[in-house]
Amino acid sequence: MKIQHTMFVCTTCASVWQNGERVGVSGGQKLLQQLQELHQHWELQSEFAIAPVECMSACNRSCVICFATGSKYTYLFGNLSPDMSLSAIAGVLECASKYYTHPQGLLPWAERPEPLKKGILARIPPNVYSYTS
Q1: CATH topology of domain 5-124
Q2: What is the pTM for the complete model shown?
Q3: For the chain, what is the HEC assignment?
């Protein structure tokens, strides 16, 4: 059985607010739509899901995405443009492919596409400890 990998995309990033209500399409929603379009033709489409998240609490570093699965490092990237070029979006999926194939999910800086080199917010280790009570 293969472990499901997920790319989370914050949909509230780069939102415009008026009177406590979000107005129009947020930058995060635009980024999600671009990723979903390329995801449809990606070779890892069935193994690496893309999931919207209402907020990932990195508002001052929007737009934000995250690569995660239970047994690997989790990566959180920010400062991504909601208007990335097609090649930059393809680069994000290429980086996700590297994450998928590496046993621990490690993404060396030199192997990341440009938007994901400068935008790293966190690398969280997998939970390798099993606690019993």
Answers
A1: Glutaredoxin (3.40.30)
A2: 0.89
A3: CCCCEEEEEECCCCCEEECCEEECCCHHHHHHHHHHHHHCCCCCCCCEEEEEECCCCCHHHCCCEEEECCCCCEEEECCCCCCCCHHHHHHHHHHHHHHHHCCCCCCCHHHCCHHHHHCEEEEECCCCCCCCC
